Amino acid sequence: MDSFDVRKRFLDFFKKNIHKIAQSSSLLPSDRSVLLTTAGMQQFKEYFLGKISPYGNRVVSCQKCFRTSDIEEVGDDFHLTFLEMLGNFSFGDYFKKDAIKYALEFLVDDLGLEKDKLWVTVFKGIKKPQFISKDLESKEIWQELGIPKERIFEFGAEDNFWGPTGIEGPCGPTSEIHYDLTGKPCKKGKNCVPNCDCGRFVELWNLVFNEYHKDKNGNLSLLKQKGVDTGMGLERLAMVCEKTNSIYKTDLFLPIIQEIEKLSYNKYEKGRKRERKSFKTIADHIRGAVFLAADGIFPSNLDRGYILRRILRRAIRYGEFLKLENGFLTILAKKVIEIYGSVYPELKSKEANILTLFQSEEEKFSKALEKGTREFEKLLEKKKQSNGVKILTGKEAFYLYETYGFPLELTKELAKESDFDVDEKKFKALLKKHQEISRAGVKSKFGGLGKNAEKEAIKLHTATHLLQSALRKVLGEGVRQMGSDITPKRLRFDFSYSNKITEKELKKIEKIVNQKIKEDLIVEREDMKYKEALDKGALAFFNDKYPEKVSVYSIYNVKTKKVFSREICAGPHIKHTRELGCFEIIKEESSGAGIRRIRAILK
Ligand code: SER
Question: Is the sign of the CA dihedral 480, 293, 531, 492 positive or negative?
Fold first, then answer.
């Protein structure tokens, strides 16, 4: 049985039991107060609260999830950042009894796992901050269904109470199924039970019994209807079904691990602990990064973009440790797409964009990493010699961030390896200040160039907008901005497109831009909500980077009111296109897989 079968059998099992199959939602949640999708129930949150579900009251899904909370654990055999979560859900339909019955039936009767290896935990109850009683009901159900009390254990809220996601929402006590991988207790003997960290048990399935609503102030009240939300990591289940002891040895990861073996001339199994950890971390991070990028997240220094950048840079660092050759990120990303492309078609359709992003991130960061690490080592050496205090100041950490692009976590990791601490609080204060300054600075993008040069740059900026629209007219709507760089002398525009652009097409593009310049279109700015801008068809560059309110530049014909270009953009622009003079493309070339680059001037 491979992971493909396991995924399918889960969905089929619940379909047979009258559940509607729901597609995975994006990793970029529609509820923007949460950074990423971390659980299967997230897209159904409202249905637990009483809103009518379009799927009916019983749903099953396999949901893409990304959790930064486990990032430090990645590198062992069970923890991941990205995971596929299998889950069945009841919105006011069945409750504990059926949820437990289905779980056992699926694992034992359908998949054929040994029942003796299943151990369970239930909620012990809490007194504070609000009294919630022990979940005796679940305990009895498990026993009735043949799990002896010797394999049932009670835990408190930390292990057996789940939710809500975000600041408010449904939550409740849980019952978890743990799988006994070795059958052998560690030195704790009888006390080696589920949640022991010796590696004997792996938590397989979390059954949440949503009975409560938690409000913004942390108060619990009973929900009008009870619900079930379960979550089981496909990777862990595949590991158990494929009878191995590490998720990295399943068919979901093995091809990536083998590719790293090829690139590093190292055997994973023969590696020392740190090498094996590097293999695993790279494999996890590259997979997560591919899925994040496929859902429209770009590496950046903010929020979701930062998470993506952070895992890519961590992967590059571990890659350095294994001495992987340049370009390894794209080679591994291709592997990931190969493994998952048939299940998640978005990976295939975004392949060119993903590879280009990774290539450019690797090119940028590899060099900085080398220089920055040297700088870092010098810094530590100096400190050891001068005062012996093993703390890196916030200013020093910020210097590494600003100059070499070291995410704080990377600096912390490097520091830890030499027993140093980092003054995070100070770092964060400096970062905040820096971000405020750069936000304010967007408006004066071309400031500081001198008046004439500034004017030329602004003209080229407007020409870039015309160019993007002309490209989309000639080459199709698949064209998307991937990068732009403007100097007072020329514009440079990178965009997604897989083929070389023919001479004829280039001429056509040039002609359209010049026509629009001659028509003397008006360039007008309007401020509006981000969503409204998208509804109006404005082109957006970074999916994840915009504030709620944005400015939109439209270039249109005053008489006919026909809009030629509309983009979300911070400006600045000129007012009339006639000011641009004559537009000329001076070079067209490739700028990475699936990306073309055009340089153009105004005469
Ligand atoms: N929401 C629970 C979890 O994420 C069960 O799906 O673990």
Answer: negative
For 450-507, the three-class secondary structure string (H helix, E strand, C coil) is CHHHHHHHHHHHHHHHHHHHHHHHHHCCCCCEEEEEECCCCEEEEEECCCCCCHHHHH
Q: What is the 3-state secondary structure (H, E, C) of 332-398?
A: HHHHHHHHHCCCCHHHHHCHHHHHHHHHHHHHHHHHHHHHHHHHHHHHHHHHHHHCCCCEECHHHHH
- Measure the N-to-C terminal CA separation of the chain; round to a whole number of Å: 65
Residue whose CB lies within 8 A of the most ligand 1 atoms, among 37, 208, 236, for a mutation test: 208
> Which of the listed ranges 6-15, 25-34, 487-496, 565-574 does the model predict with the highest average pLDDT?
6-15
Closest-CA residue, ligand 1 atom 7, reads 231
Q: Is the pLDDT of residue 337 over 70?
A: yes
Q: Is there an atom of ligand 1 within 6 Å of 282 CB?
A: no
**Sequence-distant (≥ 6) Cβ neighbours of residue 239 within 8 angstroms:** 78, 202, 245, 246, 247, 249, 250
pLDDT of residue 545: 57
Q: What is the mean pLDDT of residues 88-114?
A: 98
CB 312 within 8 A of CB 40: no
Q: Is the CB of 463 under 6 A from ligand 1?
A: no
> pTM of the full predicted structure?
0.76
Residue nearest to atom 6 of ligand 1 (CA): 231
Pick the residue whose CA is nearest to atom 1 on ligand 1: 39
Residue 343 reports pLDDT greater than 90: yes
Residue 447: pLDDT band with limits 50, 70, 90: low
CA distance 213 to 215: 6
Q: Is the CB of 288 under 6 A from ligand 1?
A: no
Q: Is the CB of 174 under 6 A from ligand 1?
A: no
89 Cβ below 6 A of ligand 1: no
Q: Is the pLDDT of residue 349 over 60?
A: yes
Helix 303-321 × helix 351-386 angle, to 10°: 70
